[in-house]
Amino acid sequence: MADNEKKPVITHMPAILTGSAALIAALTTVYVNIRNDIKDEAPPAVVATAKPAEAKPAAPAGPQELRLQLQRVAVQQDGAVGNADWRFAIEADGQPLFAFEQESMTSEGGRNIVVVGEDRNARANLELAPGKRIPITIKGWRSGWFKNSDQPAASGQGWVTSAGALAPIAVKAADESKGAFTFYFSAVPEKE
Fold first, then answer.
1. Quick one: residue 167, left, alpha or beta (phi over 0 = left, psi -120 to 50 = alpha)?
2. Which CATH number describes the domain made up of 64-189?
3. Which of 48, 70, 117, 124 is the most buried (most CB within 10 A)?
4. Backbone phi, psi, residue 31, to 5°
5. Are the CB atoms for 122 and 142 separated by under 8 Å?
């Protein structure tokens, strides 16, 4: 085929479309730059004739009532061969909230989640000041013949904020093989 033969118009379409797209992009950039220059100009001054309204000071927000409810406990290590009985005490800012006992906890897969029902009374009401947070402490003791002690075998701490946010709380023994749990709570505003 000779160089001077005419090629069909369709063969030139990709080049034409690419050039058109580049031209449109360049024109759009110029338009946006011009419009931004116009926006940067200060608006003309307006003379105020009316007296501005006096701003009233905002009333301080009162404390927020939250209902703290233990939902479930995930057992990573029950601290025993087989099942283990545990007692847990939950405190808020050093004050006791509630305690409960859970029998036959196991770290065996598929059975290591303990759902705490309403019948356990594993809930309490908290009063939170705006912008403050309260430490939630969990202490756990193994039950059994030689396991009674004043010192908890496992413990952990989390924080509840005025927004009601509470991350899962890890509760562990110094040696995690002797007890490791994750506590899941809900913290919702108390309905009046």
1. beta
2. 2.60.40.150
3. 70
4. -60, -45
5. no
Among 167, 190, 166, 171, smallest CA distance to 182 is for: 171
Q: Please give the mean pLDDT across all residues of the chain.
A: 80
* Helices of type H across the chain: 13-40
pLDDT in tens, 163-191: 777 899 999 999 999 999 999 998 888 77
What token pair was written down for 159?
């924080």
Lowest mean pLDDT among 59-73, 75-89, 95-109, 148-162: 59-73
β-pair type (133-142, 154-161):
antiparallel
Task: Name the DSSP class of 113.
Answer: E
What is the token pair recorded at 7?
Answer: 């090629």
What is the helix, strand, coil percentage profile of the chain, to 5? 20, 40, 40
47 vs 167, residue with greater confidence: 167
Question: How many other CB atoms are found less than 10 A from the CB of residue 13?
Answer: 10
Select from 183, 189, 174, 162 the least CA-distant residue to 98.
Answer: 183
Give the model's pLDDT for residue 45: 54
Domains of the chain: which residue ranges?
9-40, 64-189
Structure tokens at 125: 């009401």
Say what the pTM is: 0.64
